[in-house]
Amino acid sequence: MSRITEKDVDYVAGLARLRLDEEARARLVREMDAILGYMDKLNELNTEGVEPMMHALEMTNVFRDDVVGESMPRDLALETAPQHDGAYFIVPPIMDPEES
Amino acid sequence: MSAWHERRAHEIAGAVRTGAVSAVEVTRAFLERIDAVDGEVNAYTEVWRAEAEARAAAIDAKRDRGEALGALAGVPVALKALLCTTEGTTDCSSRMLKGFRSPYDATVVRRLRDADAVLPGKVNMDEFAMGSSTENSAIKKTRNPWNLDCVPGGSSGGSAASVAADECAFALGSDTGGSIRQPAALCGCVGVKPTYGRVSRYGLVAFASSLDQIGPLTKDVEDAALALNIICGRDPMDATSAAVPVPDFTASLTGEVKGLRIGLPKEYFTSQLGSEMREKVERAIAVLEEQGAETVEVSLPHTDHGVAVYYIISPAEASANLARFDGVRYGFRHPDAETVDDLYVLTKSDGFGTEVQRRIMLGTYVLSSGYYDAYYLKAQKVRALIRQDFDRAFAQCDVLVTPTSPTPAFRFGEKTDDPLEMYLSDIYTISANLAAIPGISVPCGLTSAGLPAGLQIMARHFDEATMLRVAHCYEQHRGFDPGKPPIARGAA
Amino acid sequence: MEYEAVIGMEVHVELDTRSKVFCACSTDFHAEPNTNVCPICLGMPGTLPMLNREVVNKSVAVGLALNCTIARWSKMDRKNYFYPDLPKNYQISQYDLPLCHGGYLDIETEGGTRRIGITRAHMEEDPARNVHGMMGGGSGVDFNRSGVPLLEIVTEPDFRSAQQVYDYLAELKQILLYLGASDCNMEEGSLRAEANISVRPKGSERLGTKTEVKNVASFTQTMRAVEYEIKRQIRVLSEGGTIVQETRGWDAEKGISFSQRKKESAHDYRYFPEPDLAPVVVDEAWERRVRDALPELPAARRKRFREAHGLSAYDARVITATRGMADYFEAVVRVGADPKKAANWMMGDLQALCTETRVEVDACAVCPEDLAAMIGLIENGTISGKIAKEVLAAMFETGKHPKEIVEEKGLVQISDSSELEGIVQQVLDANPNQVEQFRSGKDQVKGYLMGQVMKASRGKANPKLASQILEKALRA
Q: What kind of architecture, by CATH, is found in domain C417-475?
């Protein structure tokens, strides 16, 4: 019984910003279906009332003080950039303003 | 007397500190060793020849000035390619980060330098630590020094192979679901995954943030203790690093296990475990019993669900952690990108390898609208149950002893066709990451095919000391010398 | 059909901390592009966030001021989406367990007091800033803003008009300023308001399809944009059309909103708990510490100024506009000045002087005690109200005590009857025609003569006394 469809794979690839060729798409449908099918094992377990383990350790309130430290020299910040103009990181034109 | 590159880290540090040998001499011995064997092993992705020698010379000068040297004086330590260094590149064995120079050093790297270690270079891994064989490296194919037709394990395969082939005194790796312990087992060395929070993750390029932990791969347990002394401890740059005191781990190596209770989880000794591996592990348990340890059968009832939990949580976290590789600030950018959307799609599709893309897809899916509760939340709940299993088991025993891997090293290509089968080979190591407890793999013999087998010891949170004590005691009394892999013998 | 607007607000406030929320870079807005950056706020591989305690403190303070429940246990989450201003391509925010929730804010607005429900207020990081039209037609990214702490304050859909929205924003801004939680500088983007607007037939309970108006530069423009959008939606519906769920921008020059982006079937942000950060536990003691340190908030202060000092509602509002102004007022009154007179001088001449030179009242050269002393000089007849204006201007310029200025400039009021009689006589002698006119019944000429008296005394004549003497002399 296949549950993962090509449509699912396309939707997820869109979210993840991946482009899949036909072969990869077909392969991922098959593989994800098998892997996620295996995950169904978890449904054997009754987890009612179990607190999810959201963090690996039970630590709380780990903070830093509001103190300004040293920033990087701009040259160093831009050094790794595929494209920059000495002041800004440059990307292809951004069309629509999105989140704030 | 054996050559310097064959010696243990603690011997080297001792000799460099007393001036019995210079750090330069030791470093050169290792660089020559790399020249001699790495053409076949392919552990290193880059060797920092000049920098290593200069660093060694600076350590010698320091000693000549009468200054005290650090605990790792002159010890060459290989670094997994996902540890950020201002020296060389930090490429995570990915096309995405090829040539990337980190503007900062990982906290562990800083600590190694402060301890006067020498850094000979970076070693290979599965791309972004995703894999169990190092075959997912986009850079090169690392071979197992015990059999060049076999994988070294993974993802820290370069770390394990470089230690096994004497190309470094020890190496650092990272372990998200067994990525230190499994390659250590497959290459016949010692590998430690510390308790989550023991070692700062700052500067470790993240795979799965709630599971990743840095640890050493060494030639013996004492070196592992020495390395942990240096790399453990709270770091103000990592909110998940724990403010738990770090004992002197070398002091815990008493050789004494009398009265310790060793738990044998019955779920780890099923038919999945090959009879040859089972026999090795049972013999190891007998050695510990001879030394006065008691054994007790315990149950970790959710063991069987570990792989499913792990392969939901780790890809989910990875899908977010790897989102930042987009060609804006660093790394690869696809040359044809003319719009922002192209920039992402072309860069990611071309920059990431098959396994990384598969995990990003899986992780994105399990977090996506409508599936979060069924997969991610469910997995977190079962993760809590797995952790509870361990809490209950540790009420009955001090450490748990199990095999590290169900099989020894396998041949290249043997498992690459079926990702699920590859995932299932992590079954014995995954639980320690899920429960956040420490684990160590110690060599426990060779199979009839001449491949190493590994014994895994796990302990309570932050109780690496007891874990190391048991591992060390076993190592002292196991009654055989694991010997050197053929590559080492051949070149010696 | 009669329609009713239903509006909810989302306000992003940049919290006024020295360093960013997850790293030690400065939050200074005016720095050169990409100079307040480090591996953490650039999202470099291997970096980790570390939460700034002050961000929690300030957020709790705002939450308490907005009558919210402070979560004993809250956590940070990752909100996943791709955008070049987002260095990690996820934003560290809060999803299902915000730090503050379930509060309200009472606002004074058309038709009296209105209670606006505060759904939640949560901590998050600001993205970077994009600049368009760079070399080769590309866009530039400046990461200085990346990681500046934000508090997102979300209301219930409790507004029915643009005016209510305006009054809410004004009240909220005043509270944030009182708390020192944000500088609320809209030009610099430290306060950003988004309105979710829908309309429905009056009496209907069902919510209509909403549009979101964002990126508006001021409160007034926000009000205009909301007004416009309400009218637009009503027009569309009246003409039998349907509202499309979308984000709309505001063109302030043309006074119209325009479609920016259709919402693709709601975003799939794939929120999950941030594994790199420990949960935040604000226990009762911590909450109490923040509560005890809260200043008196504007509404309470306005009420007290009306009740204890007899100020009008209008005066109370003006005087409490800023915490500094209100503190100043209290200091003036504390040393004995009449509250109404103090308020009048502050709102009148002193404010004018301050506005002209762009200083805040509480930072100007006139200290509260000196303003009180000046008011005292008027009351005891040493100077006239008119001379006082001159004295205040000199105080403002020099910072000197009013007495000193009065003495230096010889501005003491002439209240000596014989001296005044002399001046009046001079004026009468110099204006025989006007005296004649008065005596023939033209009463209004007295005003002119009085002006001449003041002029002759160079403004120093005690006006009341001089007037009596003039009257007497004319009738003589």
A: Orthogonal Bundle (1.10)
Q: Which residue has the tokens 């995932």?
A: B423
Mean pLDDT, all residues of chain A: 91
Give the C window 162-221 contacts with A, CB below 8 Å: 192, 194, 214-215
Beta bridge pairs of residue C139: A91
B311 three-class SS: helix
Nearest CA in chain B to C88: B324
d(CA C37, CA C51): 16
- Selection from B13, B451, B384, B421 nearest residue B229 by Cα: B13
Decide the pairing of beta strands C139-142 and C129-131. antiparallel
**Using an 8 Å Cβ cutoff, are B189 and B165 in contact?**
no
Active-site residue set of B: 80, 155, 179
Q: b/e map of C13-47 (b: 16 or more CB within 10 Å)?
A: bbbbbebbbbbbbbbebebebbbbbbbbbbbbbbb
Contacts of A94 in chain C (CB under 8 A): 84, 130, 132, 139
pLDDT at residue C137, rounded to an integer = 84
Please count the CA atoms within 13 angstroms of the CA of B447 that sit on its side-chain side: 22
Chain A partners within 8 Å of B383 (Cβ) = 52-53
Phi and psi (nearest 5°) for B456?
-105, 135
* SS3 category, B97: helix
Instruction: Please give the Cα distance from B457 to C267 (Å, whole number).
Output: 45
Structural domain boundaries in chain C:
3-286, 296-408, 417-475
Structural domains in chain B, CATH included, are: 4-301+387-491 (3.90.1300.10), 303-386 (no CATH)
Note whether B159 and B186 are within 8 A (CB): no
Q: How far is C99 from chain B (nearest CA, A)?
A: 19
What's the pLDDT at C458? 82
Angle at B291 between CA B289 and CA B293, to 5 degrees: 50
Distance separating alpha carbons of residues C69 and C101, to the nearest angstrom: 5
Q: Among C89, C141, C276, select the one facing B323 at the smallest CB separation.
A: C89
Give the chain B residue whose CA is nearest to the CA of A35: B420
Bond before B155 cis per omega within 30 degrees: yes
A99 CA: distance to closest CA in chain C (Å): 8
Q: Which domains, ranges and CATH numbers included, belong to chain A?
A: 6-44 (1.10.20)
For the segment B412-426, the average pLDDT, to the nearest whole number, is: 87
Q: Of C275, C276, C279, C278, nearest to C47 (Cα)?
A: C276
Closest partner residue to B308 (CB to CB) among A9, A38, A72 is A38
Distances (CA, A) of B80 to B152, B212, B429, C162, C474: 14, 13, 19, 59, 107
Q: For residue C347, which of C376, C323, C326 has the smallest C-alpha distance?
A: C326
Q: What percent of chain C has pLDDT over 90?
A: 74
Predicted pLDDT of residue B492: 40
ipTM for the predicted complex: 0.97
Tell me if residue C475 falls in helix, strand or coil: helix
Whether residue B365 and residue A36 make contact (CB cut-off 8 A), yes or no, is yes
pLDDT of residue A99: 41
Cα(B114)–Cα(B111) distance, integer angstroms:
5
| CA C62 to chain CA mean position, Å | 15
Separation between Cα atoms, residue B58 and residue B52, nearest integer Å = 10
Check if the beta carbon of residue A42 is closer than 8 Å to that of residue B382: yes
Which chains are within 8 Å of B by 3+ CB pairs?
A: A, C
A68–C18 CB contact, under 8 Å = yes
CA A76 to chain CA mean position, Å: 26
Please answer whether residues C268 and C261 qualify as being in contact, where contact means their C-beta atoms are separated by less than 8 angstroms: no
Show residues of chain B in contact with C46, CB under 8 Å. 82-84, 90, 102, 106, 201-206
